[in-house]
Amino acid sequence: MKNTFQVSDHKTRCPWCLGFEEYVNYHDTEWGVPVWDDHVHFEFLILESAQAGLSWATILKKREGYRKAFADFDYKVVAEFPESYVQELLQDPSIIRNVLKIRAAINNAKCFMKVQEEFGSFSNYIWGFVGGKPIQNRLSSMSQSQATTKESDLLAKDLKKRGFKFLGSTTVYAHMQATGLFNDHLESCFRFGEV
């Protein structure tokens, strides 16, 4: 991505975030920070499953629309969305109006709660795939980054077995990066040593 947005603080950042102010803020404050909170994990699962085939920038711009449309990412409420609300959501321009992705979010909310019942929390479950602590990748350039890992392959396979949808290995790896299971900030990025 070209650096079309200039940041005046002169900090070195991962180049993928240099498109617009909200993207830089997301990179600087959220991406790669370890998440232990189930509510936050569910938010990212909804957003990342909506992203399939699209750019993260597109989803980030619609994040507040998703927050409103999906009950502030309350999985207990989302799990109970009736078909009539699915039809309303298909008319809502503040989200990605894809019926399969909307239905997947509802389905995934139900699956999410089953995982919580089994493991005590979704956080306990997902962190088990990386041994309970962030994997520190040491990337010197974006060309070293991967789309998937053995951990994301295993997690995606297990999520599918548990009934989750729109969460293949690439999407799952994006989730693991966003929620800090992997630290994939470039070593030159000012956030690498902070998360």
UniProtKB/TrEMBL annotation:
This is DNA-3-methyladenine glycosylase I. GO terms for molecular function: DNA-3-methyladenine glycosylase activity; metal ion binding. The lineage of its organism: Bacteria, Pseudomonadati, Bacteroidota, Cytophagia, Cytophagales. GO terms for biological process: base-excision repair. It comes from Algoriphagus antarcticus. Zn(2+) binds at C14, H27, H185, C189. It holds the Pfam family Adenine_glyco. InterPro entries: Adenine_glyco, DNA-3mA_glycosylase, DNA_glycosylase. Keywords: Metal-binding, Zinc. The keyword Zinc applies.
